[in-house]
Amino acid sequence: MPFVVGELAVTRAPTSSSDMRQLASTNPPTHAALRVRAPLPGTVIDLTEVPDPVFATAMLGPGLALLPTAATASCEVTAPLDGTVAALHPHAVVIQDADGRAVLVHLGIDTVRLDGRGFRLHVALGDRVTTGRRLITWIPQEVQATGLSLACPVIALAAPASNVRSLATIGNRVEQGSDLLEWS
Question: Which of 73, 88, 136, 159 is 20 to 30 Å from 22 at the Cα level?
Fold first, then answer.
Protein backbone atom coordinates (compact mmCIF):
# COMPACT_ATOMS: atom_id res chain seq x y z
CA MET A 1 0.00 0.00 0.00
CA PRO A 2 1.62 3.32 -0.96
CA PHE A 3 1.80 6.16 1.48
CA VAL A 4 2.62 9.81 0.88
CA VAL A 5 5.46 11.73 2.45
CA GLY A 6 5.34 15.35 1.33
CA GLU A 7 4.86 15.18 -2.43
CA LEU A 8 6.35 11.67 -2.76
CA ALA A 9 4.24 8.52 -2.95
CA VAL A 10 6.27 5.71 -1.38
CA THR A 11 5.47 2.04 -1.81
CA ARG A 12 7.92 0.72 0.78
CA ALA A 13 9.43 1.97 3.99
CA PRO A 14 12.86 3.59 3.66
CA THR A 15 15.62 1.09 4.39
CA SER A 16 18.80 3.12 4.11
CA SER A 17 20.19 6.56 4.89
CA SER A 18 19.80 7.58 1.25
CA ASP A 19 16.13 6.50 1.35
CA MET A 20 15.62 8.60 4.49
CA ARG A 21 17.33 11.62 2.85
CA GLN A 22 15.03 11.25 -0.18
CA LEU A 23 12.02 11.03 2.13
CA ALA A 24 13.28 14.07 4.07
CA SER A 25 13.81 16.17 0.95
CA THR A 26 10.14 15.89 -0.06
CA ASN A 27 8.64 17.74 2.91
CA PRO A 28 6.86 20.96 1.87
CA PRO A 29 7.18 24.23 3.79
CA THR A 30 5.09 24.39 6.94
CA HIS A 31 2.51 26.91 8.07
CA ALA A 32 1.54 26.48 11.74
CA ALA A 33 3.93 25.70 14.60
CA LEU A 34 4.14 22.01 15.47
CA ARG A 35 4.97 20.79 18.97
CA VAL A 36 7.01 17.59 18.98
CA ARG A 37 6.76 15.66 22.26
CA ALA A 38 9.35 13.38 23.82
CA PRO A 39 8.55 9.85 22.60
CA LEU A 40 10.32 8.30 25.61
CA PRO A 41 11.81 9.47 28.89
CA GLY A 42 15.52 10.24 28.92
CA THR A 43 18.33 12.73 29.17
CA VAL A 44 18.42 15.29 26.35
CA ILE A 45 21.65 15.26 24.34
CA ASP A 46 22.76 17.36 21.38
CA LEU A 47 22.76 15.61 18.01
CA THR A 48 26.52 16.24 17.78
CA GLU A 49 26.91 13.73 20.64
CA VAL A 50 25.20 10.93 18.68
CA PRO A 51 27.81 8.41 17.46
CA ASP A 52 26.55 8.35 13.87
CA PRO A 53 27.55 11.03 11.33
CA VAL A 54 24.15 10.98 9.61
CA PHE A 55 22.55 12.21 12.85
CA ALA A 56 25.53 14.13 14.31
CA THR A 57 25.77 16.36 11.23
CA ALA A 58 21.97 16.82 11.00
CA MET A 59 22.06 15.34 7.49
CA LEU A 60 18.39 14.33 7.77
CA GLY A 61 17.33 17.47 9.59
CA PRO A 62 17.61 19.21 12.95
CA GLY A 63 16.52 17.73 16.25
CA LEU A 64 17.68 16.39 19.58
CA ALA A 65 18.46 12.97 20.96
CA LEU A 66 17.29 11.26 24.12
CA LEU A 67 19.41 8.90 26.17
CA PRO A 68 17.20 6.45 28.08
CA THR A 69 18.37 4.83 31.29
CA ALA A 70 20.45 1.79 30.33
CA ALA A 71 19.03 -0.32 33.15
CA THR A 72 15.52 0.03 31.74
CA ALA A 73 14.13 -3.43 31.21
CA SER A 74 11.34 -2.24 28.91
CA CYS A 75 10.59 1.14 27.35
CA GLU A 76 7.46 2.14 25.50
CA VAL A 77 7.91 4.64 22.67
CA THR A 78 4.94 6.89 21.95
CA ALA A 79 3.93 9.12 19.05
CA PRO A 80 5.58 12.54 19.35
CA LEU A 81 2.80 14.17 17.28
CA ASP A 82 -0.53 13.44 15.63
CA GLY A 83 -0.16 11.96 12.16
CA THR A 84 0.30 8.89 10.02
CA VAL A 85 2.94 6.18 10.34
CA ALA A 86 4.89 6.97 7.15
CA ALA A 87 7.84 4.61 7.70
CA LEU A 88 8.24 1.79 10.18
CA HIS A 89 11.00 -0.55 11.27
CA PRO A 90 11.43 -2.33 14.60
CA HIS A 91 14.07 0.28 15.57
CA ALA A 92 12.66 3.42 13.89
CA VAL A 93 9.41 5.16 13.00
CA VAL A 94 8.46 8.24 10.98
CA ILE A 95 5.24 10.06 11.80
CA GLN A 96 3.97 12.55 9.21
CA ASP A 97 1.45 15.23 10.14
CA ALA A 98 -1.42 16.51 7.97
CA ASP A 99 0.79 19.35 6.65
CA GLY A 100 3.44 16.93 5.38
CA ARG A 101 5.98 17.45 8.18
CA ALA A 102 7.67 14.20 9.15
CA VAL A 103 9.44 13.36 12.41
CA LEU A 104 11.82 10.43 12.72
CA VAL A 105 12.31 8.61 16.03
CA HIS A 106 15.32 6.27 15.84
CA LEU A 107 15.87 3.87 18.76
CA GLY A 108 19.57 3.45 19.39
CA ILE A 109 22.38 3.61 16.86
CA ASP A 110 23.10 0.79 14.39
CA THR A 111 20.19 -1.13 15.92
CA VAL A 112 19.15 -2.21 12.43
CA ARG A 113 21.83 -4.91 12.93
CA LEU A 114 19.66 -6.51 15.63
CA ASP A 115 17.09 -7.60 13.00
CA GLY A 116 14.22 -6.63 15.29
CA ARG A 117 15.46 -8.49 18.38
CA GLY A 118 14.46 -6.55 21.48
CA PHE A 119 11.79 -4.49 19.68
CA ARG A 120 8.03 -5.00 19.41
CA LEU A 121 5.81 -3.00 17.04
CA HIS A 122 2.34 -1.86 18.15
CA VAL A 123 1.36 -0.02 14.94
CA ALA A 124 1.45 -0.70 11.22
CA LEU A 125 2.55 1.34 8.25
CA GLY A 126 -0.22 3.79 7.32
CA ASP A 127 -1.89 3.82 10.76
CA ARG A 128 -3.24 7.17 12.00
CA VAL A 129 -1.87 7.93 15.46
CA THR A 130 -2.42 10.60 18.07
CA THR A 131 0.25 12.10 20.31
CA GLY A 132 1.07 9.66 23.09
CA ARG A 133 -0.09 6.48 21.33
CA ARG A 134 2.20 3.51 21.95
CA LEU A 135 4.25 2.75 18.82
CA ILE A 136 7.11 0.44 19.80
CA THR A 137 8.30 -1.33 22.93
CA TRP A 138 12.05 -1.92 23.17
CA ILE A 139 14.53 -3.17 25.74
CA PRO A 140 17.44 -0.75 26.22
CA GLN A 141 19.26 -3.29 28.45
CA GLU A 142 19.46 -5.75 25.56
CA VAL A 143 20.63 -3.09 23.11
CA GLN A 144 23.33 -1.86 25.48
CA ALA A 145 24.47 -5.45 26.12
CA THR A 146 25.35 -5.69 22.41
CA GLY A 147 27.63 -2.65 22.75
CA LEU A 148 25.40 -0.37 20.66
CA SER A 149 24.59 3.20 21.65
CA LEU A 150 21.23 3.90 23.28
CA ALA A 151 21.05 7.43 21.82
CA CYS A 152 17.59 8.01 20.32
CA PRO A 153 17.55 10.84 17.76
CA VAL A 154 14.26 12.68 17.25
CA ILE A 155 14.59 14.45 13.89
CA ALA A 156 12.46 17.04 12.08
CA LEU A 157 13.06 15.54 8.64
CA ALA A 158 14.31 18.09 6.07
CA ALA A 159 13.31 21.06 8.21
CA PRO A 160 15.44 24.18 7.92
CA ALA A 161 17.38 24.44 11.19
CA SER A 162 16.07 27.99 11.61
CA ASN A 163 12.50 26.60 11.76
CA VAL A 164 13.15 24.18 14.61
CA ARG A 165 13.60 25.32 18.19
CA SER A 166 14.53 23.19 21.17
CA LEU A 167 12.02 23.28 24.01
CA ALA A 168 14.18 21.04 26.22
CA THR A 169 17.55 21.78 27.78
CA ILE A 170 20.61 19.71 26.88
CA GLY A 171 21.65 17.62 29.87
CA ASN A 172 18.22 17.69 31.52
CA ARG A 173 15.99 14.68 31.89
CA VAL A 174 12.58 14.85 30.19
CA GLU A 175 9.54 12.73 30.80
CA GLN A 176 7.68 11.02 28.01
CA GLY A 177 5.20 13.44 26.44
CA SER A 178 7.15 16.55 27.49
CA ASP A 179 7.63 19.32 24.94
CA LEU A 180 10.85 18.59 23.02
CA LEU A 181 10.86 20.66 19.80
CA GLU A 182 8.82 23.34 18.10
CA TRP A 183 8.76 23.33 14.30
CA SER A 184 7.47 26.58 12.78
Answer: 136
